[in-house]
């Protein structure tokens, strides 16, 4: 028996993100070619694929940092491409973590985190500070609240960036290669924070090539090539028994980058 | 050359009341500062708005700002001054014309013209600096601001402009100095600012070299003070931990 009770629970959960046959072009370049994908509430989906395959574009369409040309994307029951959708409100409940952190360099760590709750949600300074300190404790950086981004290591900056995303109390967190700009010794501290977040039940879509993270944390791996999802599988299946030649080739290259 | 330097000239009476020539310089400096400072504040405001407009996705707004810059940067300053002083008043509504040409004292109407002229001329230059500063920021900054749900105005106010202005303090400083130098055009429409008072002193006393030496010295000290002030500002707003920044 395969724990039928739990299975059903997963199916009954709300769909947080739904791509319906999404297309996007950059001029002549067909970057997203008929993408359909669903992410359930509480699910962690890892997106991987070769460089230039459209992973960043894909994840950036979720909060409309990139627009789409065809198809639909539903996030938390709202059609993001509908001009009537309040994009600012939508973005406020979707956290985004960038490869290069993109902290605000002119603000202290604390202010980086409190700025959006205060300005977007109208939270008062005291409540925002309290929230920020709680989040900084969660990512292990409470002692750095008065530091400025340029004084922090890459790993610390990325953890602050995660805290900044969480400060809006988002329903979904998106990560675009959150560890690929980091020195190897700092990758672990960021992945640890992400793993804790996943365990707390956060819905997450993560572009990453960290296979250890995918195996341990992801519910599903999605393999993208040339703007198409060509394989979607449980991580264990994907890594041990990929179906498509391009996925096999990609995994081979990931394991032996020198070849 | 046999020139008799006489530095006492500045303490001689002008023949008007108890006034000495030095008083003319002090009053000239006063006008220079009044012109340049007010024009600068307006230029900074108008230029910043235009600079932001040039970086907006809206084609109409950025087009308007671009046209403004092209117009005001390419017409010589003196021509602009004559337009503001001699031409524009003729196109004002009747009552405004009477007020500008007859009711205002001539110094005030010259002052208004030169402030408007310098402010709008310098705004075009400030606009370009602000635009450059915004465009120099990493793309990730606007993406990060949008991703948390900021509106466009919030993004500029809280994320882009505070960084852009820090970057452009050095070129803004030189525009700030330029507006003081450019304020000397006011002498051509009869406003008795520093240069006009210098010329007048030279004519009245025949001590031309002394007069211009003093004027040079005043402009120099003025420039040095402005530069010192601006580098104080730059230090004050420097981001901790950034290159060249003290902790
Ligand atoms: N703003 C843009 N304008 C034009 N082309 C773009 C733009 N952004 C991305 N592209 C192109 O679209 C394709 C997909 O880019 P994308 O960044 O989504 O790939 P990726 O899978 O994230 O790659 P990487 O692993 O290198 O980050 C690439 O060929 C890229 O050059
Ligand atoms: Mg990418």
UniProtKB/TrEMBL annotation, chain B:
Q: Which residues cross the membrane?
A: 29-53, 65-87, 107-124, 211-233
Membrane-related topology note: Multi-pass membrane protein
- Where does the ABC transmembrane type-1 domain start and stop, copy by copy? 29-230
On the tree of life, the source organism's domain of life is Bacteria
Q: Name one Pfam family in it.
A: BPD_transp_1
Chief subcellular location: membrane
Q: Where in the cell is it found?
A: Cell inner membrane; Cell membrane
Q: Which UniProt keywords are given for this protein, alphabetically ordered?
A: Cell membrane, Membrane, Transmembrane, Transmembrane helix, Transport
Which family does the record claim for this protein? Belongs to the binding-protein-dependent transport system permease family. HisMQ subfamily.
Q: What is this protein called?
A: Amino acid ABC transporter permease
